[in-house]
Amino acid sequence: MTIEEGLFAYLAARPEITTVIGSSPTRFYPVVAPQNPEAPFVTYARADSTRERAGSGFTGAVEDAYNLTCWAETYPAAAALARLLRNELDGASGWWGDVELGSVQADDKRDDYNSDLQLFGRLVVLTIQHREA
Asked: For the segment 58-81, what is each residue's pLDDT rounded down to a tens digit?
């Protein structure tokens, strides 16, 4: 299981999240949303990845940063979805499938507006330290 699959599975199993972004399908899209998406929804994209190295090579420790953008029809709804994601993800630990988490940190960063879709966005930056096989 990849870290992206683990993140999706974690969010798809949280009723607090699926109540807002659906469960069949869950409106959590890699990089861009499909054409004419139902709002609210979340897009995610990897922003950075660092693999720890030691004298003998890769140690298995990875730190990934993801940009999660929460999109909704109103500014308060986008901000509320971002707050919900931050509260559900910040401090997560344990396992996402077979991915061992070290730590998860989620922070609100900036607002956005998509004039084509007429949707408001709020960016949450997610930093995940985990072990990769």
From this structure: 777 999 999 999 999 999 999 999
Question: Helix, strand or coil for residue 132?
Answer: coil
pTM for the structure as a whole: 0.90
Intra-chain end-to-end CA distance of the chain, in Å: 10
Angle at 15 between CA 12 and CA 21, to 5 degrees: 60
Query: What span, in angstroms and rounded, lies between the C-alpha atoms of 90 and 71?
Result: 19
In this structure, the chain runs to a length of: 133
CA dist 108 and 125 (Å) reads 6
Is residue 51 within 8 A of residue 61, CB to CB? The reply is yes
What top-level class would CATH report for the domain 3-131? alpha beta
Locate the domains of the chain by residue range.
3-131
